[in-house]
Write a structure and sequence with these properties.
193 residues, 2 domains, three-stranded antiparallel beta sheet, alpha+beta
């Protein structure tokens, strides 16, 4: 349980040597605190700092937008490029999933701009009976399924690419905090490994 508030008074009971601390919170905390009355607590005081609302996923999309603008690429296209470079393959029964699409500019554009699925082209191209060429793609997992380690790898790659073109990125400590928040949000939503 965490609150924003102020320290109002401090007094000392000279008979017991205990300190009595009175705090005022910015919200109605009494109902939540009543159940803790009389129970030993671990109490921490620290100077209030406004929390940034970004978790690692939100930060990822902020950087994707900035880098996409700089490179003149749509967010879906850049997201797919990043997933191809730093992402994770989709696995079923211990095996990667492959699919085949026409090896054409139209097929490549559809794969680049896809938002509901993510695929990575391979070098494998086969010619069908009618002479049409088909390229094999590897299915990739969407970043919303990533655990903290996988998300950190994806963001590290994106941060590296942002720095190459002069886009300012968060300090490593701030990124660590965002990844912690990302993990907490995953646990809250029941997406644990």
């Amino acid at each position: 349980m965490e609150f924003k508030g102020q320290l109002k008074s401090i007094s000392c009971d000279y008979f017991t040597g205990h300190t009595l601390i009175t705090c005022e919170t910015d919200e109605m905390a009494a109902p939540r605190l009543e159940e803790l009355q009389g129970i030993p607590l671990a109490i921490t005081f620290k100077k209030f700092r406004k929390k940034r609302s970004l978790d690692a996923n939100a930060y990822y999309w902020v950087l994707v937008a900035k880098l996409g603008d700089k490179l003149n690429l749509s967010k879906p296209h850049l997201h797919n490029i990043l997933l191809r470079r730093y992402g994770q393959p989709a696995i079923i029964d211990g095996k990667m999933i492959y699919l085949v699409l026409p090896d054409s500019d139209q097929g490549a554009r559809a794969a680049d701009e896809a938002e509901t699925f993510h695929i990575k082209p391979t070098s494998e191209v086969k010619t069908g009976r009618d002479g049409e060429r088909f390229r094999t793609y590897v299915m990739l997992r969407g970043s919303s399924t990533y655990n903290t380690e996988e998300m950190a790898h994806l963001i590290d790659g994106l941060v590296s690419e942002c720095k190459e073109v002069g886009i300012e990125t968060a300090a490593p400590e701030e990124l660590s905090r965002m990844l912690e928040l990302y993990e907490a949000n995953r646990k809250r939503k029941g997406k644990t490994e």
